[in-house]
Amino acid sequence: MVYALGDKGARLLSERDGVSFVTLEWSRKNREAGRPFIEHQLEIMDFYVGVQMAAAARSDLTVIHPDELVAAFPDQVFSATNPFALQTRINHHGVMLNVGIVPDLVFGLRFTDGSRRCFMVEIDRGTMPIARSNLMQTSFERKMRAYLSAYAARQHERHFGWKNFRVLTVTTDQNRIGSMREALSNLRVPQSPGAALFFFASRPQLHTADPLLHEWQDGSGRLVSLT
User: Fold this and answer.
1) 171 strand-pairing partners
2) Is it the case that residue 31 has pLDDT exceeding 60?
3) What's the mean pLDDT in 203-215?
4) Do 106 and 69 touch, CB atoms closer than 8 A?
5) Which stretch of DSSP H or E encloses residue 176?
6) Is the distance from CB of 103 to CB of 120 less than 8 angstroms?
7) In the chain, where are the structural domains located?
8) Distance separating alpha carbons of residues 124 and 122, to the nearest angstrom
9) CB count, 10 Å around CB of 182?
10) Which residues contact 165 (CB under 8 A, 6 or more apart)?
11) 38: closest CA among 123, 140, 128, 101?
């Protein structure tokens, strides 16, 4: 069973707790939400709940939730409606294109020594083409190129106050991971971490594994963990 926030609930939160909403027309938005959108949202939350449960079983780290990350931004007026949205420029055959990226989820891990790691998450359901000849069309390759370009421009430092971050991609199977890594190997963005920026895992693997201890693959195929 899935519940959604309605107009009356949004107004109550706004009046009682001072929660700010761009629009209070939530009932209309809920009617427009189709099955693919709902399934995608459920998969995002399924992954995030797995992270929180894994962290709760440990004493050496805690999860930094998105609102806590936003509260620590050095630029509090940056993208108020979607604080983790990024706009970057991509060079495509000498033509500069403006591309926006919005991660499905953002969280951090804080360790007992005071250090932290920040992650942006992409939950891929296998519906988006991995590569296209036309960069104006959406593809996962374009998304990866945008993340690399945003990192190279140090947007995470200016807007979020992070020294670095990694992009976690949860996708359908190992074959698709292989295709993503192949597309990534062809991308060259100076001043970016390159293939090391991305960690990949398949959804079936994570259903039976601790996401914090799981051996993810980075873009070069090296096995890495989030901790």
Assistant:
1) 202
2) no
3) 95
4) yes
5) helix 174-185
6) yes
7) 1-33, 44-224
8) 6
9) 13
10) 117, 118, 119, 120, 151, 156
11) 123
